[in-house]
Structure prediction request, 941 residues.
Amino acid sequence: MIETRSQSSAEVELLSFRLAEQEYSVDIMSVREIRGWTRATPLPHSPPFMRGVINLRGTVLPVIDLASRLGMPPVEGDARNVIIVVHAGGQSVGLLVDAVSDILALPRTELQPPPELAADLAHSFVQALTIVDGRMIRVLDLSAVLPTYQTEAA
Amino acid sequence: MTHDPMAEIRASFFVECEELLESLQDALSVMADHLEGDGTQDTETINVVFRAVHSIKGGAGAFGLTALVSFAHRFETVMDELRCGRLVVDHEAMKLFFQAADMLADHVRLARDDASGSPPGSETLLIAVEGLMGDRAPEAEEEEVEFAPMGLSFDLALPDLGGPLDDDGPGPAEPDPADSDSVESDLGESDLGESGLGGQRWTVRLRPLDALYASGNEPFHLLRALAELGSASITCERAALPDFDALMAETSYLSWTVQLTGEIEESDIRAVFDFVEDVAEITVTKTPELAEDPRLCQPEVALAPAAPPTPSAADPVPEPTHTAKVLAIAPVAPALPVLPAIGQAVDLPPEHPLPPPSQAAAPTPQAVIPAVQAAAAQAAAPAEAVAATVRVDLDRIDRLVNLVGELVINQAMLAQSVTEAGLPANSAVMNGLEAFMMLTRDIQDSVMMIRAQPVKPLFQRMARIVREASAAVGKEVRLRSEGEGTEVDKTVIERLADPLTHMIRNAVDHGLETPDRRREAGKPEEGVVTLSAQHRSGRVVIEVADDGAGIDRPRVRDIAIRKGLVAPDAVLSDAEIDNLLFLPGFSTATQISALSGRGVGMDVVKQAIGALGGRIAITSERGRGTRFSISLPLTLAVLDGMVVRVAGETLVIPLSSIVETATLSADDIRSLGPETSVIHIRGGFVPLFDLGAELGYRGPKASYEGGIVLLTAQEDGSRAALVVDEILEQRQVVIKGLQHSYGNIPGVAAATILGDGQIALILDPGDLVENATGRTRSADTFLALAG
Prediction:
């Protein structure tokens, strides 16, 4: 996602958020809105990270528990949590995170590819790394985070 | 925005074509029925056929669609022979006519897709059809010159140009061509045929008084209404018109004489003038047959009937001395409150209702011609029942449907907050809210009705499939259709076409036996495939039945075993064997035929039906035939549901699938296996499903005693008892698909938004039961497999 859109521009804007004491971020261009926590209606027979669906102004929006998706303990789900509504790969999805922290604008050159390291589950979802004020921020690869749904039958 | 007006006209021509093709099919079917009956054909039906072909030809000519024109022309020639009684209809001819109608549809489709040339087989078919005429077959005459594309302004009356523009039809004698000075509001011209002229002749004189215009009436509409009664010839009398200088703007000068011909009662004519009796002089007299039309009027005014009382651009102001310059000031004149409208009227169509019947320099012909054509267009249809329709872009309807959906949700939210506010039940707010709820419901029903369409066009397409399929496999097959008027959501109809095609082909190919076999079995050689539609308890049921040999169950079983679909030692009930047909990769045809038997088949059909929220069931009787019945929701947008609570979650279950609710006592529950139970209700045993456990909300309960169950029934007669914790209410919910946002969830049909803004899942009990875990039901693995 980030790759394709920002080849031309030298700057990249990231929305960073907290997830189990780690800092992650997504390209701000894919963010549609940020919503307060709402209870999601669970879906039967869905993977554990699938929190359920919420009502986004009359449309049904699936919500992913990002922590659980990345292999961390699931987000509690209370008034402090937020849902980031992202649009990627033709679908809209809500990402449940602990809290949104910041909007960062940085030169593309400061993004580094993640080192080929451990078989950590979260690792394959990280597209790039960067350092801001001494904190390491992981840039998420949204297309990897979003589950591939069953396509409509015939 | 730029848009090509021609493209628009063209598009509407093709829409019109679809309608004409439909009425053509209809009429042909009627003819076929007549043939089955006493063998006599009635002229009106033949006329409908002729008219349909003729109108398509006419419209096509205007667009220079030569291939289509030439086909339609030659087809029409044959139909004309038929109309004149020089051709006798027999089975062979009927078959050819149907084929020709199909071919005509192909031609139209080709033309619409801008493809040139003719569909394959067109020429051969034409020769065969023309062969019916024997020696009289014309030397394939070239299409007439008047079909060359022309740059006329047919903006309004486009598809009916066939009428005004050509008169090649050897139909009844035209009204005296010398009458060019009167406007012949001639309805579809010669197309009406002799039969239309058989009625009485009426002379109607209409002289509007000043009050007629003052009260906002408009003679044009009256004349048009008259023209819709029958064949009308309208003459305007303007003898009373004073000179331009002496003309008074608010005085009525013009009057009209209408010659009406047709099966018309005097009361019909009087009815037209119901509202203007007091403000016009009206005389209605019966004319002796073939009376001479009075021609009282000079040529240029004769055009006026279409736009009689409208002041023309040159003269919108009361004072004749006014010039165009004064026009700008005119609206200020206090004496004429309606005047501001005139400013717009100047270049608007003449129908604009304006009070003073001021005489004008005759309206410019260009302005009038479209109106005349419009009148002709209006008049051309009424021979059949006048169905007033508006064509609306489907997107707009969908937007409306969505908005109404939001309205329903909003209303529910409002109701909830009012309830929470704790107002007394008889307060004004509560009463208002109740009325609001009823209104919302009415609006919703009405909006849904807009989307509903009769299944007839779909069935007609199937008739064609049957004809083609039976020809391909060499069987005599007749399609009987029932309930064509049944209305279903447009999307459902569209998406039903493919599965139905498949099933019809299957019925013809596999279902029906060969003629030899049928004879041996003592059946008539001609097989019958029945296609029916009907509303049944909030759903629409479409059935495809054949009177063939029925399912050869041992063979189906063998094939399934050979293909490894079931274990060789499996014990299967008849219904289970029948359901094997729906398994992917199953095909009974030992020989792969041109039509079906490629191994994709009923499973795809089942999937497609499932995607529409429908279910398919199969019943078969050896030697008697097979019947597939498809049960579909009426609309894809709302459903009546029962709102229940299970393990803290709110769920909606379609009301249509619920037979009854019950509270369980210890006696009702019998355990079947270690982990499964049935309940004993009304003398039968029904498997018990715990919704909480099935949906993974919690584990099975220790005891279901005192629990509430919903007894559901499916189309195939199977029943299930669903355990819920609490029944909340019964209400209409707006369906929000999950397909787009998430995908298919077994047992879940869709989602909806409740009054509190929360999303609730709508269950599909049939699917739920089929996909039920072995935990509550372990004995029926085969059914689950076959289903």
